[in-house]
Amino acid sequence: MDDNSTAARNRRLVIDGFTRFAAGDTEVLRTLLHEDFVEHSPGNPSGRDAFLAFVAAAPVARARLDLKRVVADEEHVVVHYCMTTDEDPRGTAVIDVWRLADGLIVEHWDVVQPVPDEEQVPHGMF
């Protein structure tokens, strides 16, 4: 991937935002999300301000996020990470799919799965 390609720029934008969010900066979403952001996860609101308020109050805002991989093309960035808390040290495997346009995130999908016991996943979740 060319470092100046749209895919590379989108990848850097999402990784920077992920890193800042994981460090506790939920307001970074205000600079990343389009005003008319569309959310596809059941129960999560669409719209930048509504989504920001929702996420700031959600467990993810206080969890430890361990980024495992990032895949990007010209329009999408996919992040795969482990989300853990003191109450759930085994954690949750998360895949976020972000669609970007003109340097802003305009759409989001996710897949969330509790990390099972190691013996249930002989090759690991990550």
TrEMBL record:
InterPro entries: NTF2-like_dom_sf (IPR032710), SnoaL-like (IPR037401). Coiled coil: none annotated. It comes from the Bacteria. Residues 18-108 form the SnoaL-like domain. Gene3D superfamilies: 3.10.450.50. Signal peptide: none annotated. It holds the Pfam family SnoaL_2. This is SnoaL-like domain-containing protein.
